[in-house]
Write a sequence for this structure.
């Protein structure tokens, strides 16, 4: 029996009818990863023994005590703390780091009965859009192994796209869930800032970072967000708001839904294929009863500069903790304490991380603080106000997720500004803090394209409802890459 | 357009506690100059009467009662320390 093409509900049916055990499912998942991952390179660390032991233990739980995700396998991005399972954020400076506690989301996965099968590759400290900034390996796009999976959660989206695992967690600071979800043809949600606890997420830019679910369909995505969402007293920025029943929001009815389409998201640099796929998607949503109007988010073009100033400034502060004393990589070339710090950090961080630490240090240094950092914080206010205004009249905002489909490995790695432009349509969402999802909406040749649906603060329900209606009306999410069936079983 | 010199990069790297060679500094200077020039786009906007946003949600400081609680066991805390001795973190000798 094959498990890798099943939804959560279908897997539960097999478990509840005793056609399969959690141990069977876990074993097959690990076998499939072992078989496919030498090609995809999504996983950094596997948790085979503990996962199998957990599966056998969970098989003893009576059926009526199991929730919708009970016993199902999940992979976790490597910047999320997993006790006893090496966590590196794909950086040399955390090589071999063994967390002494779990992130709150990992505790929540445990409470839901999910089984962590391994840790997923990413751009170092979540800085990057291609997974090429990992110290350990380059993850490949399952649709074409010469192409990048996107980033920074590229390991998480590639693993789902290859059918290695049906659920993963990623993190999104400027598009790091949605951009790779679009590149890999899977569903990725960045929840409202504060919806999910960041406790145990290795910090990149604390005012922007948010953990979110990656899956192959919208319903499963809603179930996974349900499991990880909620206020956490260990994260002072987590919001004390009620968590609704996300799956219940999938009513299939979008009659009267008001969609705003920002003209700035179809500007120069956005490929014809990406635009056309979204125009087609809007036709589908109109047929289902939505109204579509062009709108303006006038400060969109300032988002990229604002983001790189703020995110790098926050990063330069957050990453100052890595000094080689109490944990992590340590240089063996030091003749003074200053030398020790400087060599440890120079040897432990990769180039992109260094670039951003230096940019942030520069933007925060006296003489430049007002011109760069404070200026960017003010422009952030204007960008947020664009969204506030739009949501007075519209229920969701729809756009392409990325300006182009995935590019080839090595193609733009030496050109930071071109690389940054990948996130031009996802970054404003993080600056405003609103939720947004990427769902598959077409192809450019063999490579997938993503539809971005942006919602108002804490209104993930409407975002999911629209995404679900679109998914049910189209077949894009059913297409699978060639290597999908290439594997045995 | 702001010019980013090699010496400025060396200064910033020092502030950020990153060892850097001259060659690296020249390379980073070019890239950081291009990046900071792109950031100057923001100067188009008049933001004199705009309040800065540090967080998108209304945030309040979260305090707990000031009661002493037991910390983590020493063994756990030392788990990721490269070298330790007698329950203490060991660092390289830097004084003669």
């Amino acid at each position: 029996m094959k498990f890798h093409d099943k939804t959560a509900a279908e897997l539960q049916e097999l478990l509840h009818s005793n056609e399969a055990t959690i141990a069977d499912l876990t074993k097959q998942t690990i076998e499939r990863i072992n078989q496919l991952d030498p090609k995809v390179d999504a996983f950094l660390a596997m948790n085979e023994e503990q996962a199998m032991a957990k599966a056998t233990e969970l098989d003893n739980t009576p059926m009526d005590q199991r929730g919708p995700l009970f016993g199902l396998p999940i992979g976790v991005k490597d910047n999320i703390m997993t006790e006893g399972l090496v966590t590196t954020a794909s950086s040399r400076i955390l090589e071999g780091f063994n967390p002494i506690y779990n992130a709150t989301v990992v505790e929540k996965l445990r409470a839901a009965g999910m089984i962590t099968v391994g840790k997923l590759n990413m751009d170092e400290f979540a800085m990057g859009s291609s997974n090429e900034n990992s110290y350990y390996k380059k993850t490949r796009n399952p649709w074409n192994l010469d192409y990048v999976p996107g980033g920074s959660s590229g390991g998480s989206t590639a693993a789902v796209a290859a059918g290695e695992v049906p659920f993963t967690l990623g993190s999104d600071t400027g598009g790091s869930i949605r951009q790779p979800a679009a590149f890999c043809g899977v569903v990725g949600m960045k929840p409202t800032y504060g919806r999910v606890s960041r406790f145990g997420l290795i910090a990149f830019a604390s005012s922007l970072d948010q953990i979110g679910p990656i899956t192959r369909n919208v319903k499963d995505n809603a179930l996974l967000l349900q499991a990880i969402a909620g206020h956490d007293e260990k994260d002072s920025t987590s919001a004390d708001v009620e968590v609704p029943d996300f799956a219940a929001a999938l009513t299939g009815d979008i009659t009267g839904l008001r969609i705003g389409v920002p003209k700035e998201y179809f500007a120069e640099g956005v490929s014809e294929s990406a635009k056309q796929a979204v125009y087609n998607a809007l036709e589908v949503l109109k047929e289902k009863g939505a109204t579509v109007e062009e709108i303006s988010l006038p400060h969109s073009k300032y988002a990229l500069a604002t983001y790189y100033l703020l995110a790098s400034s926050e990063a330069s502060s957050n990453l100052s903790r890595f000094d080689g004393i109490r944990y992590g990589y340590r240089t063996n070339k030091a003749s003074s304490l200053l030398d020790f710090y400087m060599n440890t950090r120079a040897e432990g961080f990769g180039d992109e991380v260094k670039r951003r630490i230096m940019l942030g240090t520069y933007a925060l240094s006296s003489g430049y603080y007002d011109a760069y950092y404070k200026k960017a914080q003010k422009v952030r206010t204007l960008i947020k106000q664009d969204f506030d205004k739009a949501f007075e009249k519209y229920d969701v905002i729809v756009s392409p997720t990325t300006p182009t489909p995935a590019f080839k490995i090595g193609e733009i790695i030496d050109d930071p500004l071109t690389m940054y432009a990948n996130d031009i349509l996802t970054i404003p969402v993080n600056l405003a803090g609103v939720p947004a999802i990427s769902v598959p909406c077409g192809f450019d040749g063999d490579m997938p394209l993503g539809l971005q649906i942006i919602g108002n603060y804490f209104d993930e329900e409407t975002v999911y409802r629209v995404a679900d209606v679109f998914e049910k009306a189209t077949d894009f999410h059913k297409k699978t890459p060639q290597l999908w069936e290439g594997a045995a079983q | 357009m702001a010019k980013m010199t090699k010496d400025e990069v060396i200064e910033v790297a020092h502030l950020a506690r990153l060892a850097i060679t001259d060659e690296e500094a020249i390379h980073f200077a070019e890239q950081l100059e291009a990046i900071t020039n792109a950031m100057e786009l923001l100067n188009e906007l008049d933001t004199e009467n705009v309040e800065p946003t540090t967080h998108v949600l209304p945030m309040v400081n979260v305090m707990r009662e000031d009661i002493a609680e037991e910390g983590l066991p020493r063994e756990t805390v030392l788990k990721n320390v490269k070298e330790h001795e007698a329950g203490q973190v060991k660092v390289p000798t830097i004084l003669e």
User: Anything to note?
Assistant: The mean pLDDT of chain A is 96. The two ends of chain A are 8 Å apart (CA to CA). Chain A touches chain B through 66 residues (CB under 8 Å). Residues 226 and 260 of chain A are 27 Å apart (CA to CA).
